[in-house]
Amino acid sequence: MRPTQTLMGGGGGPIGKHGKFLGDWGNFGGMPQKGIISYTLSANKQNPFAGAAHAAVFNTWRRFSGQVLYFAPPMLFFYYAMSWAIERNHYLNSKHGRHELEE
User: How many Å is the Cα radius of gyration of the chain?
Assistant: First the structure.
């Protein structure tokens, strides 16, 4: 089975309307363009973590405040239910609680 031209398009073969190789991705082999100016900053002059701590604090607060109403009420409910159950268990296993159950 012969591979299609799309599969062979990784480079190195004659592809195109007239059998000419257009080049790899990003390098289509055309004429160099004129009048395009690009400015870059060298890697050692960049500050990739500029404002990262500030953004982390406020982004965390924004995300937390958007989700707190989904998990806080059930958490509080189950916390109080569990504390009531533990307290009731301690009472029922005490002298007064056993005496109450016997009557």
Answer: 35
For residue 31, give the H/E element and its range.
none
Q: Chain centroid to CA 51: how far?
A: 19
Helix (H), strand (E) at residue 49? none
pLDDT digits (tens, 9 = 90+) for 3-33: 555 555 555 555 556 666 656 666 666 666 6
Encode 54-86 in three state secondary structure. Answer: HHHHHHHHHHHHHHHHHHHHHHHHHHHHHHHHH
8 Å CB contact between 15 and 8: yes
pLDDT tens track for 37-57: 888 888 788 888 888 999 999
CA gap 46, 35 in Å, rounded: 26
Residue 69 phi, psi (nearest 5): -75, -10
